[in-house]
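B., you asked whether I could sanity-check this one before it goes into the benchmark set. Here's the sequence:
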Amino acid sequence: MCTLILLHRPGHAWPVLIGTNRDEMLDRPWDPPAPHWPEHPGVVGGRDRLAGGTWLAVNPRGMVAAVLNRPGSLGPKLGRRSRGELPFLALAAPDAARGAEAVGAIEAKQWRRFNMIVADAKAVYFIRGLAAASPQVMPLGEGLFMITARDPNDVTSPRVAQYLPRFREARPPAPPEDWGDWPRLLADRSGEIEAQINITPQGGFGTVCSSLLAISRAGEIVWRFAKGPPDVAPYEPVALAGEGVAA
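And here's what the prediction gave me:
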């Protein structure tokens, strides 16, 4: 179960702020964010080496797309397509609205269940894919949202119940250099294992990397990436290039 924190502030100089921790089997190979895909020019993201897709990526038009699992759907399943394909579908669109629309038009039963965020400076969308019919696309208004394997701000998740109040009280990032209290919170390992935001390795599973990402009102993106659990790995700039994207 990965975690994504999103602060949406329409009209602000930095209207979209995102913090994520990626949780995965520790032996599943992956590559840090880079332009790994010649067939998707301009897209920069982390690459899952097994399936070839991504969990979080951006494009030169100032768009971000992230995909997370729903409950009980960790890993691949025979006969289902990789959810790591879905960010590419969204990022091929000219803006977040049409990217979310493209994902909403897929035949969801071809993929395992998923949650997804598609965002740019103008709009943010949450997409729920339940492996039946079409995914449900919902715009997210102003505010702070915490997404795990369930719906945004679902406090039946022990992790959301523990950390959502902390993020609401935290000092928010002020990009490009000041990331507020978010790095400290994303690195925290307090509480029971099911509530941890930075999961202590257990049974070959744990938090493997972390990101801090922001979109400016002009569509500029800044991305800081930790190549390991954020309590031990430093956040470093991701090299980005192209219109609307900056390192």
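One thing to flag: The helical segments are 86-91, 96-104, 158-169, 182-186. Otherwise nothing jumped out at me.
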